[in-house]
Amino acid sequence: MNNDVNTSATGSTGPAPEPMGADIPSTVPTHWYNLNADFPEPVPPALHPGTREPLGPQDLAPLFPMALILQEVSTERYVEIPEAVREIYALWRPSPLVRALRLERALGTKARIYYKYEGVSPAGSHKPNTAVAQAYYNAAEGITRLTTETGAGQWGASLALACSLMGMTCEVWQVRASYDAKPYRRFQMETYGSVCHSSPSELTDAGRAMLAADPDTTGSLGMAISEAVEAAAKDEQAHYALGSVLNHVMLHQSVIGQEVLVQLAEAGERQADVAFGCAGGGSNLAGLTFPLIGRNLREGTTTRVVACEPAACPSITQGEYRYDHGDVAGLTPLLKMHTLGKNFVPPPLHAGGLRYHGMAPMVSHAVELGLMSGQAVGQDEAFAAGVIFARAEGIIPAPESTHAVAGAVEYARSAESDGQVVLIGLSGNGVLDLPAYAAYV
Length: 441
Ligand SMILES: Cc1ncc(COP(=O)(O)O)c(C=O)c1O
Description:
single chain; alpha/beta; Rossmann fold; 40% helix; disordered N terminus; lyase; tryptophan biosynthesis; Trp_synth_b_CS; EC 4.2.1.20
């Protein structure tokens, strides 16, 4: 594809995005929910990588717009969603909550299984929930270019979509293992007008150093983040956007769980007894479950939350809980999180979006407080569950999402689940991941 053409097509420097005046259904959430208002103890602060002192807003200003920096440290329970963002959400929100009757029958379970399906977004996953919000706040501050990293490409495609809707340019560093094995989301990014590079690349100091150290590296999200952060820091018109891990990303994703609370009540259910979400950096899991955990804390419901992570990259179940960098080069702030160490390079999994060495500080904190637990799922087990789900319900889950399905399938087959409401976070569809399924079936 000719990136020059695509880039100039979206390279406008328009004013802060105004709402188009569309009718927005009342079922589209009006506010994001912030679990920081309800945590019994505050999340340990992010630290400056040089001084190891808590970060101030100005430390983040070169990379993020002030509105997002303020959301990062906010303890307000509800944050109003701008009208222009709600209008875009209304293109696919509320996303469906579906009773998985055929899956129940296939498993022979007495549990009532529901799945919340984020694959209906234009990009095919939950990631646009935050991509649109982040692009909006950056555009409102006059930023014209966003840089980011991506694993399997779901986040890159989502930010490319959001930038195209907001009239911005977008440059994505994609982990080499996925760049080589999964070209279709790159084509998606390019169709939306973005540029996508294989990471590590020769375009940044960080990338060149990593290639010098290991020319055959398969790459990692930690490496790609270093490149995208460096590129943004060197361009005054550019900011960096992160698709997971940070508090403001967890905030934006909360539309998922808030809708679930309404939709479960409409279905006549008092609560989800157990909720399963897949966990890479933690954002779809947080989006699905933080509103439910908040309700547990405020109203005494008893939803149990299980974070399903890949056995090959098990930050929650095997990592240490300590301060660590979000990237390999050590450019990002120090975050208190479950981590396998910033230099950990996971094997090239099909679920590329789960190949991250750390876990969101808010998710890590929730684990430490006993508000959720972790479960490691092997790749074959995950695909087996994905195939059962596809054959029963029709939707082919994203390889990442199959981890949540596997956790739920195992539980629903146990006697413990009798009569319970089991909730699955189906974070995306796998239609662009069919080669991975082909390798399995
Ligand atoms: C469909 C899908 N689910 C889950 C994830 C994992 O990310 P997170 O843990 O932030 O939701 C990704 C990441 O790219 C993804 O594409």
